[in-house]
Amino acid sequence: MKTPVQFRHNGSDVAVFVDGGASLLMALRDGVGDTSPKFGCGQGTCGVCSVLIDGELHLSCITLAESVAGRSVETADGLKAGASLHPLQTAFMENFAAQCGFCTPGMLMAAKALLDRNPAPTRAEVVEAISGNICRCTGYEPIINAVLAAAGNRQRA
Amino acid sequence: MKHRGKGMASINYPIGMNLGGDPSQALVHSNPTGKFTVALSAIDLGQGMKSVTRQIAAETLGVPVEDVYVDTADSDTGPHDMGSFASRGTHRVGNAVAVAAREARGVMMEAAAEELEVNASDLETDGKGNIHVKGAPHRKISTKDVAIAAQFKQGKTIAGRGIFLVPLSEVDPETGEMSPATCYAHACLVAEVEVDDETGEVAMVRMDSAYELGRALNPKMVEQQLVGGAWMGVSHALYETPEPYYPEPTHGPRDFNEYAMPGPGDICPHDIAVLERPAPDGPFGAKGPGEMCANPVLPAVANAIFNAVGVRIDDLPITPEKVLRAIRQQGGAKPQARR
Amino acid sequence: MLELRKEIFADERDDNLNEIGKPTQRQDMIGHVTGNTAFFDDHKLAGLLHLKVLRSPHHHARIRRIDTSDAERSAGVRRVIRGGDVPRNLNTLLSLLNFGKDDEPSLATDKVRYRGEPIIAIVANTEREAFEALAKVRVDYDPLTPVFDVEEAIKPGAPVVNETYPKNTFEYHGKYDHQKLRFGDVEQAFAQADHVLEQRYQMSPIEHASTETNGSIAAPETNGRFVVYTCAQGLFFSLDTTAKILDVQSNKLHFIGGTVGGGFGGKVDSLTEPLATLASMLTGRPVRYVLGREEEMQFGSPRGAERIYVKDAVMKDGRLTARKVRSYLDSGAYTRLSSYAVIKCAAHIPGPYTVPNVHADIYCVYTNRVPATAMRGFGVTAVDFAIECQMDKLAHLIGMDPMEFRILNAYRDGDMKAHRREAKNTALIECVQVAAEKAKWPIREEFKRMSSRVGGGGARAAIPQTRLDGGAQAPARPAPQRTSYDRPLAASPPAPAPQPIRPASLEPQRTPSQPPPPAPPPSPVPGAQHGAARFSSVFGTRRR
After folding, report:
1. Does any CB of chain B come closer than 8 Å to the CB of residue A41?
2. Fold category of B2-14+183-329 in CATH
3. Burial class of residue A21 in the structure, from the number of CB atoms within 10 Å of its CB (0-12 exposed, 13-18 middle, 19+ buried)
4. Nearest residue on chain C to A101, judged by CA atoms?
5. Does C111 have pLDDT greater than 50?
């Protein structure tokens, strides 16, 4: 027996049918068709599934799909403003902050969650904010630089 | 009490599958308006296979990189490639792409020569999308117009094929005589650590290194590999194991909480110098940094720990438990001569 | 921070290039930052089924009986697959290169040799239903004594892990349980040395831990073919492995991949493609087989552990005169790629140094643990750890600065290497000098002036007298080479300065990266795969 769940996904109203116990990650990937959050562990320990729920960073693989009914969910797929890249996306590009790209969507959401509440973070605050997101390729340095660069640009704007 | 120490290691690394015998192929062709596709079955793991091959093709063809697209990997359309491992991609696939691009370029120049009514040897590309007579830049034609003329007027196909193979070497059963590789990359890395003699924890302070890679085809992507690889080296040296009590196969980690790796708060500054001694058989002399970037870190860190507190740990990973036991067994930290 | 030291070896390079050397943005970067990059699992297919496997809880056991009757009736189950359903259940990955014997089942039938070995595959409508059905499979095991230590495994009387290799070691050249490297006379050098140092090093197994786990999705396509979306690191390697195991022609399979969420060697083994494809063939539906994270961490193939013994002879003046290495690669229960790593390891010894006497025995050993596979630095990382820790200890022993010790012993252009090839295109000395400078690590002037291009060859190019294990003398000259990369050993004049590499686009006639004129093709081995004699010199006649 499947349960309907209605929520806002990157600014649009969506509705999906989920099995009991289904994760938000699977509802997004299979139900809504948004494959930007990734499956990395299903255990809540790697961060590649990170999304924002009502502006707060969450691990969608251990979030029940039913729990987002009536709430707002943001994924990396919704970062662009029309055809323009979000300043974080531009900063990641300019700082070569992605190699395989698998951790990138989750990493961007963790960074967005930080900058939305703290537009001028210190390096230590950036490190803290992304500490729940594993990257196996970059060694983290370019990612930290990208987030600081995006923050710097936003300050100037 | 915390003690700092410096240690170093120097290595070389063979490029390509050991003994050779690992071919790569590439196909390059132009669409009707002079935009090129490089068809491969090579794999991009994040190391940038799609990107370096794109640059090699653009350089060889003499066209802007924006006019080249690398399409991979589809077994229906991409010719055979052995795979992405053994630091072979840049060298083997890059060479195959260069060969294919050279053939395609040859046809393009012949077609341009016919349009401009000169010999192909009188022409050169400007890297911006034009082909012109050497010394007379006003006598030119765009690569787009050449492509159109070639296909619709001259009946030529601006395309090329390439394969690169290091022939397979034999191995002598009695002496081990063999030809493992045609070229080697090199590296030397200095690690500085800080060891806490009360907890055994080792913190990375900084790394300085020199890597020789033949030619840095793209310095930003080389930096990606060397920084990321060194991080993985630190992880191997100090953190990672799926069998903490090897050879006893117990207490194996089940998730990333249990499989320890350094996080963004554990990294240190890393200053890198890149040297380039071109490999005679590399694409523009390039070798491949993909694996050797991690290797010197493991022993450099172990040697730095010795310099800091006088203990040798020969058993990886070097956990705080092992460091503390060794310090206690030796009767306390014994810092070595400062460098 | 990265700097390019262009002035070093500048006379060997032509830096007049257009696109090469530019920090051009990656072709895939926009896809990565917008989440548009499509990995294998980002393909949605209607009617997708899910495959999960039952894994052995025992390290080593006989299987007496498998009862899948309750599992088959379990809700949502479409198909239960046993070893007997796999057309060619026994395989070894490098059989595609005629290397080694088929020793590993896709699904175990009568014996399990490591904890986690797959026994039954269940295909169901959802992953949850597959797991619930797996829990209903009943297997009767007779546990056997396992062996976990490489040196215990090669002792007579040790439990036999893999009956294909009853002494728990891979067989080389049809007669040896190790690969040899013999160069000069290490025992004589030890006898004459000022110091001899023998140490033991242990490298841990390592988990690749890519953020994307292993997996694939196989589906019926058009024309009776099957499409497979895969994370494989070798597309045709995986396709041909699948074709062999399923006993189908290669063109029945359409493999699509090329965009992988991190590999590092962990996606070479084709862990999921054969069973996913078989399941798709048996059900007529798309089937997804993806390892969970705990599954990947516990049962996905790791970098194999390595135990390395290094015995060195060093003189007071800093010269390393002998290196003797004995190394055991822990292959786990099956061969996979470890047999090849042994040769690569032998090729790497004694490291980037000119050592006049070298001796190595490298073993591929079977134990009852998850089979090992390639990982970043395969066959080299562990031995580099051992060698470079050893070098540090030796420098300390004789009171020499570690940097200077490396420069003194570094190989130079023209030196003879232990595997009887001339060192060329060397650059270790320059890397040490630059690293020392960057780290503000003082070294003496004479060491700052040394060069990879000076001082090599001459007497250092000689192949020393080498007594083989059987007592005979090894040939004094290298064997005639089949490739033009291996120049015959000349008598002393130093090699001419290498020509600068000209960019291909400027010289259409000269093709520096063109392969050399092909060597005469080797005579085909009967029954060889792919029409080529592959690795036949190493592994004797391929046996099934």
Report:
1. yes
2. Aldehyde Oxidoreductase; domain 4 (3.30.365)
3. exposed
4. C32
5. yes
